[in-house]
Amino acid sequence: xxxxxxxxxxxxxxxxxxxxxxxxxxxxxxxxxxxxxxxxxxxxxxxxxxxxxxxxxxxxxxxxxxxxxxxxxxxxxxxxxxxxxxxxxxxxxxxxxxxxxxxxxxxxxxxxxxxxxxxxxxxxxxxxxxxxxxxxxxxxxxxxxxxxxxxxxxxxxxxxxxxxxxxxxxxxxxxxxxxxxxxxxxxxxxxxxxxx
Amino acid sequence: xxxxxxxxxxxxxxxxxxxxxxxxxxxxxxxxxxxxxxxxxxxxxxxxxxxxxxxxxxxxxxxxxxxxxxxxxxxxxxxxxxxxxxxxxxxxxxxxxxxxxxxxxxxxxxxxxxxxxxxxxxxxxxxxxxxxxxxxxxxxxxxxxxxxxxxxxxxxxxxxxxxxxxxxxxxxxxxxxxxxxxxxxxxxxxxxxxxx
DNA sequence: TACAAAAACTAATAAGCATTAGTTTTGCAA
DNA sequence: TTGCAAAACTAATGCTTATTAGTTTTTGTA
Lengths: 196, 196
Hints:
2 copies of one chain form a homodimer. By secondary structure, the first copy, chain A, is mainly alpha-helical. Helix content of chain A is 66%, strand content 0%.
């Protein structure tokens, strides 16, 4: 009876996927039923299968959309050669903006990837490890070129990625601090700790 | 037939809870069945109910054990009055050690608390927010007393807590770097960014 | 207005879940 | 060795789940 509502230039599958991301974030993948998802869309559960293949497909789409966004950004920023410090700053800012503007999807990719089915699970982990490794190389290069202190590059990358990821706890304070102050404070805190 | 094996000074309930923590971490609370837990203990599922009340009770025990450990440590370290910088350093080191030495339980408390039932869910969140608030006050005091730069205290606390939490991704590199190097590097990275 | 495709619906399936009830086995103390 | 409590077992219950099959309604187009 009720139909899935469409915005502009958005397929029904995309609407379903976005709604799924909201629910997966709120309740977790395993605890979100197709009935709940259907209800959120104003539809009966089996109707969803006219548009999607399976529940786990929804998770795959969300996780790889996020992973690909980060990988693509790193590609472009690495090609514009400047200092390693500046590249790193741009990456940190991109991570922060992704956390603030695509919160549901990033959260799901960070927390629910474990429920991916093979071979997607393995591919996701390979892609993520590759991304981290590229950041480590960036840090190592910066250390050699005397831009960064002589820290352990793994520890630094880990610290940076984790800090940014922690913005998921930020939602509650959103009203008190502008996202620009947040972004600048966080960039300074993280870069001042390692810059020479 | 098979009995649950006991170590020294450990009740059967504690053995079950610890095993549950390992499984909850590996597969998530919702995707861990009582059958799997029982199998890991060499027992049939209904036998578990001779020792525990319910599946969700297991999650409660894990989450509050972790939460109480952090709260207690903050109590003791706050009573030994020294500089705010030094207190903060001790707290960071405690967090790191908890991540390294009680990984399964801390991970579960960080990731699976969402599945707690009321009123435990609310209590857990209240306790966590209270803990964070105490750290913010510590940071504010340190700023007033000119120990820290004039940063936003919420952002700094968030950055620190998130970085430490990110040690969950550390397991894979464990072999390459000693935990002492890790701890010192991370403390320096985080404190150098905000110390005056 | 009629037709065809898209997308909704209802009904059903088979599997998995936590948990309870009732029974048997185990292990310790007298 | 006997007896009792603790702790295991088997069997069953009732519920929820993702998904499929088959049917009807809706919608856009000729």
